[in-house]
Amino acid sequence: MKMKKSLGLLLLSVLCLNAGAIDNKGITFSQLASDRFTLVENGAPNAILIDEQEDAGVMIAAKNLQNDFKLVTGKTADLQFEPGAKRMVIVGTLKSRYIKELVKSKKIDASLLNGKNEKYLMTVVPAPLKGVEEALVIAGSDKRGTIYGIYELSEQIGVSPWYDWADVPVVPQQNLSIVRGSYTAGEPAVKYRGIFLNDEAPCLTGWVKHTYGTNYGDHRFYARVFELILRLRGNFMWPAMWGWSFYADDPENSKTANEMGVIMGTSHHEPMARNHQEWARKRKEYGAWDYASNQKVIDRFFREGIERAVDTEDLITIGMRGDGDTPMGGKEGEDDKYVSRDKENMRLMEKIFKNQRRIIKEVTGKAPEKRPQVWALYKEVQRFYDMGLRVPDDVIMLLSDDNWGNVRRLPNPEERKRPGGWGIYYHVDYVGAPRNTKWLNVTPIQNMWEQLQLTYDYGVDKLWVLNVGDLKPMEYPITLFLDMAWNPKRYAVDNLLDHPRQFCAQQFGEEQADEAMRILNLYSKYAGRVTAEMLDRKTYNLETGEWKQVSDEFIKLEAEALRQYTALKPEYKDAYKQLILFPVQAMANLYEMYYAQAMNHKLYKENNPQANYWADKVEQSFKRDKDLCDDYNNVMSGGKWKNMMIQKHIGYTSWNDNFPADKQPEVYRIEEPENAVGGYVFKSSDGVVAMEAEHYFEKKDVVGAQWTVIPYMGRTLSGMALMPYTKDVAGASLSYKMEIPKDITEVTVHIVVKSTLAFHDIKGHKYEVGFNGGNVETINFNANLNEEPENVYTALYPTVARRVVESKVKLELPAPQNGLQTLTLKPLDPGIEVESDLTSVYAAYGNREAAFPSSYDARKEGLVTPVKNQNPFGTCWAFGMAAIMETSLLAQNKGTYDLSEEHLSYFFSNRQNDPLGNTPDDKNYVLGNYHVIGGNDHLAAIYLSTWSGMTTEADVPFPTDSLHQNDLTVQIPESKAYNSAAYLKNASVSKYSEERMKEMLLNDHAVSIMLYMKESYVNPDTAAYCYPVGKSNSTVINHIVTVVGWDDTYSKDNFLPVSNVTSDGAWIIKNSWGEKKGDGGYYYLSYQNPNISKLVSAEAVAASDQKYKNNYFYDGSSALSVIPIQAGQSVAAVYETTAGKGKAEVLGEVNLVTNSDNACYKIQIYTDLTDPYDPESGTAAYAAPYEFEQPIAGVQTISVPEVVLKQGSRYSVVITNSGIDKISFGVEAKSSYGNWFTCTAGIETGQTFYKSASETARWTDGKTKNWTARIKAHTRTLNQSWVPDTPVFQVKAYNSGYNLISWKKVSGATGYYVYRKPAAGGKWSQIADVGTSELKYKDSKVTANASYRYTVKAYYEASGKRYSGKYKTGDVIKAAPAVQKVTSVKSEKNGIRIRWKPQKKCDGYYIYRKKKGGSYQLIKKISNGNSSSYLDKKAQKGVSYYYAVKAYVKEPYGNTYSKYKSSSAVKRK
Prior knowledge:
It is a single chain. By secondary structure, the chain is of the alpha+beta class. Strands 31, 33, 34, 35, 36, 37, 38, 39, 40, 41, 44, 48 and 56 form a 13-stranded mixed sheet that branches. The protein has an 8-stranded parallel sheet with strand order 13-12-11-18-17-16-15-14. Strands 43, 45, 46, 47, 49, 53 and 54 form a 7-stranded antiparallel sheet that branches. Helix 16 (498-508) crosses helix 17, helix 17 (510-527) packs antiparallel against helix 18 (546-567) and helix 22 (876-891) crosses helix 23 (901-909). Strand 35 (1018-1019) and strand 36 form a beta hairpin. The longest helix has 33 residues, at 573-605.
């Protein structure tokens, strides 16, 4: 039974069709089954039954469904008005003929739809109508509910809502079936949900002109937009209005919207169902758009709009702004100049509201509250509202964002009570100050989600409208916006990325979804930093490397997108280019261009000839921008989207710049760059001066030899050498000038030269280095680069492999000259080639070689979350761990997390078995009340490596009331043990030193520390703290705080006299005693404080970003126990793959714990273990072990090359000490810590093992020593059962009469199928089934000279069933020719004539000759397969010869020859 169940799951995962659908996943399949309803059989779709009198919009959707079936099957589904088939799809509203019959006969439950808004029910009904055996019924509460149900079926059969607007291909299907059941998406959370086509020139207008030949959007255009909106379950639209008039341009527009079921409105500044262009086109006739002076004309204008809309569902905008979306009587971008008129304008607006409502009543004949209306609080209008301007309660109040995706205002609890409700006008496109944003989507996924969640939580649920510009390329944000409008609570922090993944699965297929989602998400993150129009050379900091980092991130992302694009099937490439590749390439190129401009300007100022290189890069990028847009407009999708990407975006200085086209950024060029050398002066930055070799201040050549730049030599820019090497070097030098702070007296100089061997002097080559006026050091850099036994492995091989020699020397600094120091390098031997990164001067502060800035404060970088209050509990350790985790997430731009200290402290002392069930008996025991006893963050880090937390404060709140008193009513269900909003990825743990603290702060921005803290030693005026220096018991610990920075200049006078502080300098610490203590919750801790210990910093990963979701481990408790692992010794963990529940998994991370710095590991993964007690009894995943170095002790997660794991198989992770003599490796064992904490370890045999370094050593079970090694494996579950990769193979023909097929090993495969077919065509025939012991097959059943094709498929076997992967057809291969015989050899007048019988399909012949006792020599190659003789004219008279002929055929890898048979001897006469 188990095997059958697993097989069913496998089929479901392989055949399930609608992986990208938002609702009702996993119900449609590409194969038929008796337990499913058949939609399509052998290419024939079911007929669609509909009431002939059905609503027009439902009828249009049904006809679109007909066409969707045609896209899928090639055949249009019949649309019928009477039952006429055994199987049908029945669609209709609740009031339509056939649905009413089904309700009456109780075949469907009308109560599920009655009184509902826009809800559908899709259900399989047996014998629904006479003559119909079974039907899929789609019933709607109203017309849009029915339409949404119809389009849900379209998605189920594989038609994306973006099939037209993004050219998403439809996968052909011959059979389709759907699981019998009832399905619905429920009701929408927001009543009106739609988009605003805005700022439509020149792109959308140009595309419409090209596509439809009109200067406006007519009903043909709008019908396509309406269909998209409905397929995305929207129902509302503001039409384009810059130069178009929806109502006036084409009277069919409004009619089409009403028929199709889309509710129209007019934008925030177009009142009373009138388009702005209707006024603008007749401005001379109408006069001023000024209600105070032109009320009569404007009222008539308003009345005409309501008369036209009276029989529609249109939502009426009321109110009024200035002419053309400006402040009343003002200009765009100058709103602040008209504040003085506010009260006057407000009185006028009250009059406008009154008259507009009167007109609505008069035209409709109904009370105005019966006709839905909306008032937009946009820009200055929101100010009017805040000053007291109001509309009647039935009117929807439309709020807005700030045009950049940040909501400006939300209703308070009292305001949320108004019956009309609230709406939001949101932007992903904007024209206005300070710059337009029209070209590309620059909205981060997380920002839109977060702001819309916020909006909905505040009761804004009547109208959501999104400004989408030209519609393209805003495909994804449109989808996200409308999906959230339907169900804002569907996505939370921990599953938000499911949405872009589902979107990508729907557009590109399930197998591409993960990578496409990752790229789409990173694109939205990177592009969201600044809009394309706002980007310029000054946006990022060049000096700190920020510019290069952000540019490199985009370039890397482009490479990854291009890699995926090239791997796609051709039919997906246009869609992928539109939705992912083009935006990534376009933005990456823009970043590269502005980075190049920044470099050009910087280097030009320095008179650096490299400025010209960067100028070229700017020009190339500018041209590439044009080429990318041209491809989008004219090549992609066969030119379907011509003009859609002609928006100017390079050259803005303000939002309304009227420049005619993109302008190349300004660049500067150095004239005669070959002469612009020398003269460089450098400044130190963060205590470092780094210089390229060719950036010298002065060079001195010698007679016959010059310093020569060797471009591209070295690790970065270039190298320099005194050439030629044959000349005397005496007197030659290179000088480098730099500015070093005056208080620095000693520096360390790093000199990097090429790893030249000692060709000139066996004793080695030397150079001198020193500062002018100071000591000079002589360095022999290659004396040990030889093959002497003591040098060959320790010096020679490692150095020549790196290709450079780096030497370090400490030098005292002489008195500066004019504030500058000059470093001079003099060669003492020829052949010294100075590399590009010649010299790094590290400022030595005190006795420390490592350089740190004098101060650092993570708060200034926005990397610290608010101060919290642990009162009344003793859980400071949990607050410290939460603080460093929260800082890590901020540093990754993941936003502000409020992590739950209570969750951590509770489950630390009440730990639960892990989700995979491997740690049932592992326990932590806090000996007392966990709120009181305390803890430390080293233990906490080990605990969090099990992924039991951390969750959010909202999920598990701190158990105190408003007065911070213990609230005993808070209960924590054990089911929440593994709730996690963020996981611990890495934790660095160290003893205290000033240098290590600063190093960890610069790496991770926050460090938790242990210390003794007593308020009586705090200076209340300065918040400075130090336990008295020299006081007894100075090592006692009672508290944990978080260090977030330092200040070397913090005065010792800030501390209390009792503390005995004698030197400046303090750590900036974040405490957990609330904001009222210290300096807003912060304190300053003296460097001299005597009891700082146990530094812990963390790298967290948001749960939504954790790629590998399964955590395999045996070490559930949190002891700090370690074992010594000597060099060459190994530890290992063995696991059984179970998390996938029938699906394969991929291992991609290994987690371990060590108490040693600078630990070096080799990691090997073994799969398919044959002996569960021998971790090496399986197949090694890597050709060579993966190597990793851990610089600081602690918890470490290591990304390793991915390894596929078959479900139910055993695998091992083997860790070998490849570096230092001994590693203190973390293990779980029974342990006690004083009178406050103990651990028990439920250790079993077969979990973890260890082995000595001896070649003959055997593995020993850790159970024998009562410990379990802390080795965890992180895997991800594949979305379908795994199949092996396609083998890489080759075929060679041999003259022994066989073809040899050989291939490379495929990870996880348990065997291989070999297939062959004639090259001219025909079916594949399996010729071999080969196990894993052989990676080749000899095909002896071939015909000489015959042409074949071969392929190899890998498979793996599980539960008696084989699963094979894909295959790739190999090149045509010809079998070797048959043995070639010589038929006759005869002496003639001009030589000896050799004859043979030609072979069919042979490509030519080789003729050989020898004398008696000699060996055959080739005398002629004949390239004609039909040849049958050859005259040997060079045979000597009177000499006897033997001859042989070899036939050959041409192969992809060369020629294959036949065997031969020698002729008898013949003498030339």
